[in-house]
Amino acid sequence: PKRARGPAAKRPGGGGGGAAKSGPTRDMELQLMASGYTAVGGADEAGRGPLAGPVVAAVVVLPPPSDASWRPPPGLNDSKAISEEEREAIYESLTTDPRVKWAVSVIDHQEIDRINILQAALGAMRRSAVQLLQQH
């Protein structure tokens, strides 16, 4: 199967608040799948802002749009726009649904100090993607 790095509109490390953000959409996913990709995953990280601690990244592959039995949980679009309780409910919904594929990686502060925070975030995303691929 073909593997994509993702649309140029959303690269790891880009964005981060401020003005309106453009990013991946379900339409972009449909376009990639129509061109031959069998799955499209999204990656994100947490921990680039703090001065200490690990960086954590996840890659998630949602069921394809053709799966009419699955709908994204309400609020999935932006975790910063919902309450902690809503985030926890979405997390539970996604991580317990066997149709949702996901993997998480953590890079500790020693490795961040050695390679820098950007490389750590990118590395955590890469590790998560590799873990996801190895699950299948």
Automatic annotation (TrEMBL):
Residues 1-28 are annotated as: Disordered. It is an enzyme of class 3 (hydrolase). PROSITE patterns: RNASE_H_2 (PS51975). Residues 1-11 have a biased composition (Low complexity). The keyword Hydrolase applies. Its main location: cytoplasm. Residues 38-136 form the RNase H type-2 domain. InterPro entries: RNase_HII/HIII (IPR001352), RNase_HII/HIII_dom (IPR024567), RNaseH-like_sf (IPR012337), RNaseH_sf (IPR036397). GO terms for molecular function: metal ion binding; RNA binding; RNA-DNA hybrid ribonuclease activity. Keywords: Cytoplasm, Endonuclease, Hydrolase, Metal-binding, Nuclease. Pfam families: RNase_HII (PF01351). It is found in: Cytoplasm. Its EC number is 3.1.26.4. GO terms for biological process: DNA replication, removal of RNA primer; mismatch repair. It catalyses: Endonucleolytic cleavage to 5'-phosphomonoester. The keyword Nuclease applies. GO terms for cellular component: cytoplasm; ribonuclease H2 complex. Coiled coil: none annotated. Endonuclease that specifically degrades the RNA of RNA-DNA hybrids. Belongs to the RNase HII family. This is Ribonuclease. It comes from Astrephomene gubernaculifera.
